[in-house]
């Protein structure tokens, strides 16, 4: 058989199939946008404010000892109930009870019962007067401390944070000036404002049994609140 008819048939079949499909043009690889050129500066600065504490906390303890467990616990219960009743009549004062425990000494065979009582107030005078009265009635002083109230502590942390940011911006500008550059942007910023440290509690003291005993004295120190600002700052050459 001649090969010409076969070649002709193949050519006709190729023509019927239509033209070749267009091939997509190759896509060039994506390129990331160029980053701003400059010097990356890492800084941290601290802001600090001092505030007079506005909340007083007095910790007291009722305690009784004896051979009869029920009797010593009943005595503690009466003392704490009476103290709570007195505290309820003092304006701007909040009284809360603390831990309650009972223990028997293996040598003396005596029972000891104890319960804590906490007085918290923003007006120190009536709180101290009540504490003195309760000391005269036999309660023990476990400690006394001043602190910032929640609202005062929040305001102090806000102010300390503002001062830290101002100090950081001033420092970044000074460094840029020294290098003959300018601040382009602040890339990241974090602010840490830890809780203000609580003053140490006084050692426990046994009250004198005199009903006319003077109230405890209090001369609080100022509370220092700090905030630390950390940032990455981009410096660029001056135009």
What are its keywords?
alpha+beta; elongated; Translation Initiation Factor IF3; Alpha-Beta Plaits; 2 domains; SIMPL/DUF541; three-stranded antiparallel sheet; single chain; 4 helices; 7 strands; 239 residues; four-stranded antiparallel sheet
Q: SSE string, helix = H, strand = E?
A: HEEHEEHEHEE
Q: Main β-sheet: number of strands, strand sense, barrel status? A: 4 strands, antiparallel
Task: Tell me, rounded to a whole number, the average pLDDT.
Answer: 84
Annotated CATH topology of the largest domain = Translation Initiation Factor IF3
The CATH architecture designation of the largest domain is 2-Layer Sandwich
Question: What is the count of structural domains?
Answer: 2
**What shape does the CA trace take?**
elongated
CATH class assignment of the largest domain: Alpha Beta
* End-to-end gap: 85 Å
Strand order, biggest sheet?
3-4-2-5
Radius of gyration: 39 Å
Structural class: alpha+beta
Total DSSP E strands = 7
Protein name: SIMPL domain-containing protein
InterPro entries: 26kDa_periplasmic_antigen, SIMPL/DUF541
Keywords: Signal
Tell me about this structure.
- The chain has 2 domains: 38-54 and 149-206 and 217-239, Translation Initiation Factor IF3, CATH 3.30.110.170; 56-147, Alpha-Beta Plaits (2-Layer Sandwich).
- Strands 3-4-2-5 form a 4-stranded antiparallel sheet. Strands 1-7-6 form a 3-stranded antiparallel sheet.
- The protein has helices spanning 3-16, 69-88, 124-136, 150-178; strands at residues 39-51, 55-66, 93-104, 111-121, 140-147, 181-192, 223-237.
- Strand 3 and strand 4 (111-121) form a beta hairpin.
- It starts with a helix and ends with a strand.
- The protein contains 4 helices and 7 strands.
- Helices cover 32% and strands 35% of the residues.
- The protein is of the alpha+beta class.
């Amino acid at each position: 058989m001649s090969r010409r008819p076969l070649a002709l048939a193949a050519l006709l079949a190729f023509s019927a199939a239509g033209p070749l499909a267009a091939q997509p043009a190759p896509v060039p690889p994506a390129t990331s946008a160029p980053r701003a050129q400059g010097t990356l500066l890492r800084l941290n600065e601290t802001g600090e404010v001092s505030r007079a504490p506005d909340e007083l906390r007095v910790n007291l303890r009722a305690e009784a000892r004896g051979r009869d467990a029920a009797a010593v616990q009943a005595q503690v219960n009466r003392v704490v109930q009476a103290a709570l009743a007195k505290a309820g009549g003092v304006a701007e004062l909040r009284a809360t009870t603390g831990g309650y425990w009972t223990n028997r000494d293996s040598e003396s065979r005596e029972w000891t019962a104890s319960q804590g009582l906490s007085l918290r107030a923003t007006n120190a005078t009536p709180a101290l007067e009540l504490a003195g009265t309760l000391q005269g009635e036999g309660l023990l002083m476990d400690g006394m401390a001043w602190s910032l109230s929640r609202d005062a502590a929040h305001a102090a942390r806000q102010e300390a944070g503002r001062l830290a940011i101002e100090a950081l911006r001033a420092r970044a500008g000074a460094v840029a000036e020294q290098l003959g550059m300018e601040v382009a942007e602040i890339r990241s910023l974090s602010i840490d404002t830890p809780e203000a440290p609580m003053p140490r509690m006084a050692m426990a003291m046994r009250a004198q049994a005199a009903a006319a005993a003077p109230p405890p004295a209090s001369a609080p120190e100022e509370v220092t609140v700090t905030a630390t600002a950390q940032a990455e700052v981009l410096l660029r050459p001056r135009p």
